Amino acid sequence: MAVARAYEFEAQRWCRHLGPVVESSAAQIYVFDALTGRCLYATPAACVAIDTPLEALSELNYDNLFSEPFRPSQNGMPVIMALERVSRDGRRDRVSVCLMESVADESIPVHLVWVRPAAADQHDDEFRQLLESAPDAIVIIAADGHVHLVNRKAEEMFGYTRHELLGQAVERLMPERYRTMHVGHRAAYTAQPHTRPMGGGMELYAVRKDGGEFPVEISLSPMQSRHGMLVTSVIRDITDRKRAQDMLTKQAQELARSNAELEQFAYVASHDLQEPLRMITSYVQLLAKRYRGKLDEEADEFIHYAVDGANRMQTLIEDLLSYSRVSRLGQDMVATDADSVLDDVLRDLNVTISEAQAEVTHDALPRVRADASQLRQLFQNLLSNALKFRSDKAPAIQVTAQRKGSEWQFCVSDNGIGIEPQYHERIFVIFQRLHAPGRYSGTGIGLAICKRIVERHGGKLWMTSEPGVGTTFSFTLPAVEGE
Amino acid sequence: MEGQRHHLLEILLVEDNPGDVRLTRVALDDYKLANRLHVVSDGVEAMEFLLRNGNHTAAPRPDLILLDLNLPRKDGREVLKEIKQHDALKRIPVVVLTTSKAEEDIMRSYDLHANCYISKPVDLDQFYNVVRSIEEFWFCIVRLPTH
């Protein structure tokens, strides 16, 4: 305490001696009454700068002269800030000032404002304006890790005023758990400074004044200044981006999970449903066997419907199982000769083809990257459909292949009954049938399986059709690399 | 088709579904040869029967085992494995009779030395046929080791 008072005394004594020097220098210094804001004194250079004669000084007030309120630092240190100075004629100059609290002779608290010469501050000023208008938060750190400068965006982002940050360790802006580690990282950076993103691909978090954490992206660049080496860190709040990314990742996982679950469900359901169904069928049949003729005709009819229903359900379950098998038990995609696969299928369908007196023609088909047994099922289903849904004419079916970029496009065309446009989407949905049971056999699984097979190969399946003229199913499969 | 043996044929059915047990019984009732069907409803009891433990100290050695795969307590696959690794039991023919048509179940069963694998048919007549063919094949055609 005594030391401080002694220092104060010395300072005041020397100030009286320095007075003439200050008076004659180019220094622009204003002294205000801390309570009223009234101007008590200004150096001649300060008066000239605002076109105000010495006599008019007492009319001046801090708040009229400067655009920003006087904000002293907490610790008595001078505060440097950029603000606007308004001259008597209304001219506004952007200046850099040094603000300080002090006490004048008669124990009057005063505010000292030292306006730094424009020439020296020109660069600083432009730099600061650049800093202030930057869209990202910028925190400039001295080599010892103390905050040297922050911009407005950084104040907003962290919830501190710049006066609360200046001179503080930069670690204040990061979560507690990273602070110790960061001191080490910072020392390593200062030893070998270069421009780079911070964190080396790690997720970085910053902490606000209120304790709230948020994810950030930071890039660092060193610069030499008259204050020594400074490190500029540009900080971007990536909360929104991260949220969007997390959401996408979550949705993708969710989708994969629900797909897998659905497949599992289809498999388990159909597998486990078979058991009780077999019981129903068997015992109804046992009833029929033991009691046929012993009951009346109606009873026989009832039994018939029960057995028929159970049988149809059995078919549905088996179809559902084969649908779930497409991705559950799919084999690897390898170079597969579509031509020989098609030949196999035509051989299998030989009887049906000749019974229908159908004519099947096909191009020489290429090799594709495919699961051979699924490709076989694909051709089998499409050709069976073409044969099944025939018109009065003898069926004429054509299979073609055409190269499209990295894929082959296959077409299976028929001259059958065709499909009304409004059903073009529906036919690919599982168990959707367009005809009454009995007219055409089948549960409506074939095309759903086809679609699943093609999609598993990364291709597309679609159709064009004209009722009464015919239908073309087209699908794409990946070509063999290098062919 | 003359039977090779004149004693009562002992068949062990390992099956947890009473409906299936009854159906098998009904089908075996029409059987030509005198047989006795023993039924256990899980894998643990099946092993007790075969090893004559627990409640089955007086159990006969079966001539044929009909084994379901999905069983409570001890799975049919484990039962199969234990039978085929047991010196006194491994020669008993085991027919895996199950609902599953899954490729992996079939492969697995043969890998564990099942003597044959049959999917239970949905249709009653077919079920009868299966039971009949089992009896005919194993008791009339195949020459089995004597105990």
Outline the structure in words:
The complex is a heterodimer of chains A (483) and B (147). Chain A has 13 helices and 18 strands. With 483 residues, chain A is of the alpha+beta class. In chain A, strand 1 and strand 2 form a beta hairpin. The model of chain A has no long low-confidence stretch (mean pLDDT 83). Chain A has helices spanning 2-24, 44-49, 62-65, 118-133, 152-158, 162-165, 176-191, 239-291, 297-328, 338-348, 350-355, 372-388, 446-456, and strands at 28-33, 39-42, 79-86, 92-103, 109-115, 137-142, 147-150, 196-197, 204-207, 213-225, 228-237, 334-337, 359-362, 367-370, 396-404, 407-413, 461-466, 470-478. In chain A, strands 6, 7, 8, 9, 10 and 11 form a six-stranded antiparallel β-sheet that branches. Chain A has a five-stranded antiparallel β-sheet with strand order 2-1-5-4-3. In chain A, strands 13-15-16-18-17 form a five-stranded mixed β-sheet. Chain B has helices at 18-29, 43-51, 76-85, 103-111, 124-141; strands spanning 9-14, 35-40, 64-67, 94-98, 116-119. Chain B is globular and about 35 Å long. The relative contact order of chain B is 0.18. Classes of the chains: A alpha+beta (483), B alpha/beta (147). The interface between A and B is medium-sized, with 16 and 15 residues.
Radius of gyration of chain B: 14 Å
Helix amount of chain A, in percent? 40-55%
Q: Strand percentage of chain B, roughly?
A: 15-25%
Domain module tally of chain B: 1
Uncertain residue segments of chain B: 1-5
Provide the structure class of chain B.
Answer: alpha/beta
| Count of individual helical segments of chain A | 13
Structure summary, number of beta strands of chain B:
5
Strand count, sense and barrel status of the largest sheet of chain B are:
5 strands, parallel
Tell me which protein chains meet in the greatest interface and how many residues each side has.
A-B, 16 and 15 residues
- Oligomerization status of the protein chains: heterodimer
Tally of DSSP β-strands of chain A? 18
For CATH, the homologous superfamily of chain B is named as Response regulator
Tell me the strand order in the biggest sheet of chain B: 2-1-3-4-5
Please summarize the sheet with the most strands of chain A: 6 strands, antiparallel
Order of helices and strands of chain B: EHEHEHEHEH
Mean pLDDT of chain B: 82
